[in-house]
Amino acid sequence: MIKRIPWDRLALPAILLLGFALRIPAVNFGLPHLYHADEPIVVNHALAYGSWDFNPHFFKIPPLASYLLFISYGIYFVLGRAFGTFKSLQDFESLFYSDPTSFYLIARIIFGVLLGTLTIYLLYRLVLKFFDRPRALLSALFLSVCFLHARDSHYIYADIPLVFVLVGSFFVLLKILKGDASVRAGMQMGALLGLAAAVKYNGAALIIPYAAVCILNPKARSGVLFAALAAAITFVALNPYAVLDYSFFLQEIIQQSQSNTGVPVTHHFTYSLNGSVGPVILGLGCLAMIRLFFRWSPIKGIFALFCIAYYLILVHAGQPYDRYVLPTLPFLIFMAADLVLEIKTTLDKHLKPAYAGGLTTVLILACISVPLTKCILWNKIMLQPDVRTLAKEWIETNIPEGSRVAIDDPFHAPRLQFTQARLHEKKKGLTGYRRRRIEGYLARSYHPSYHLVFLVRDVTSPRFLFAEPVAARDPAALHDRRFDYVVSAFAKVSTADPFLEELHRKADLLTRITPYKSSAIEEVFDPQPLTAGPFLWKDLWARKRNGYPVVIYKLR
Known about the structure:
By secondary structure, this protein is an alpha/beta fold. It contains 22 helices and seven strands. Strands 1, 2, 3, 4, 5, 6 and 7 form a seven-stranded mixed beta sheet that branches.
C-alpha cells in the first residue's frame, strides 16, 4: 500500500531549499576580480591576522567578522596542508595573491549563503515558539524570497550575520517579555546585545526593544545591571582592541558617525524597504503595525517598535544604501505574514473553504511574486560576465601590450595588469605583506600588461597602493601624452561631463560595452552605486549583466 505523502512536513524543507537556491547560484560573481567595494575590507584583515597582530587598525566596522574568517582560513590551510594543496604558509599566501577565488568563495558561502539560509530557519523557530506553525512557515517563506536578504547573502560583510544574531536575540527578549525576570535571562540578553554590537555597531539598537520589555515586565528591571555588565564584557571580549587601542577606536567611531548624516524620511521606505520585499508585503506589514493601535499584542508590539525605532535611527543618522534596512526585514515580514493569516481567518468565517483558500493563495502569491522575480533576475544577471570583465578581455585582445592606458573611475573600470617593470618599481621600499603581495602579482599567470595611469579629480588626495600613478581628470589632461588610450566607466550619459565631452571630440571611440539588453538603453537607473549588483526593478529588467557602461577611446 502506498503511503500518503506528508506534504505538511515537506513545507519547511521546501522553503529552506528555495531560500538556499536563491542565495547560491551567483555566489562566485566577479571572481577572481574583486568588484565589491566592501568585501576586501573583511578578507584582507582576516588574512593580515596571520602575522599574529590582531589589532585590526580599522574600526569603522567591528573586527568580529574578520576574526571569524581568520579561523575559517586557518581551517582551510590545515586541510589544504593535510591533503597536499599547500606545502607552506607561503604557498597559501601566494595562492591568495595569484587567485583569491577560493578565499572569497569560502567567506561568501559561510557568512552569506549559509547564515542567510539559517536565518530563515531561525525566524521559523522564533515564530513557531511564540505563535504557531502557519505563521512560522509563512514568515520563513517571505524571508526566503526577500530580495535584499537574498542578494546580500551572496557576499561578505557584517549585515547578514547581524540579522542572524538579531533574530536569535529575540528568543531571549520575548522570553523576558513573557515573564522570565531571572538574572540569567538578563545576562543572556546582555551577552546577545554585546554580540550584536560586536558584529556591527548598529546591533546596539537591540537596547530599544529590551528597554521596552523592561517597561512591560517591571520584574525584568532587576536584571538590567547584569545585562549591561554582560553586554560590555561580551563586546570587549569580541573586540578587545576597542579598549587596548581606545584612542584610535574612538577616532574611527567619530569619523564613521560623521558619514552617517541621515536621509529623507521617505527614502528607505520607498527605496530600500519597497525594493526589498515589494509593495504588497511592505503594505501589509505597515497595516499590521497600525492595527496594533486597535488590537494590541505585546510581542507584535515589540516587533513593530524595533522596526519603527530602527527606521527613525536611519532617518536621523543613517546612510542611503539599501542594506541599512536589513535588520528590520524579518520583523516586518512577520507582521505581514501575521496579517495575511488574520485575513484568511476572516475569509474563512464568511466564505466557503475553497473560496477562502483560493483568495488566500492569491494574496500570498501577490506577496512573493515581486521579490521572487527580482531574486531570479538578479541571479541571472550576476551569472553573466561583468562589463568590467568583458572590457578587460576586449582591451587585452585589441590594444597592444605596453600601451599607455588612462583609467577613468578605477573601481568601475576593468582590472588591467601593470607591467612587470611597474610592479618592480612599486615593490621598492616595501616590506612585509605589502612586498609579498606585489611578489604574488609578479608570479601571476600571464596577461597582457599596460602602463596604467589613473585619472582623479584631486591629484593630492591619498591613494591606495595600486591606484597610482595618477593624472588630473580634466579636459586639459587630454593633451598630456602620457597615455594613448582612455577607458572610462560612466554612471549617466545624460549628465554633462566636460571631460567626456572633450574626450569625444579629441579621441576616437573604439567601443562601448553596455550592461543593458539593448544598446539604445544608456541610463543607469539607480542613483546608488552598483556595489552589490542592481537593486531597482526597472534596472534589473533592463539589464543583461552587471556594471556601468564602459567606453574605450584612442587619443589622436
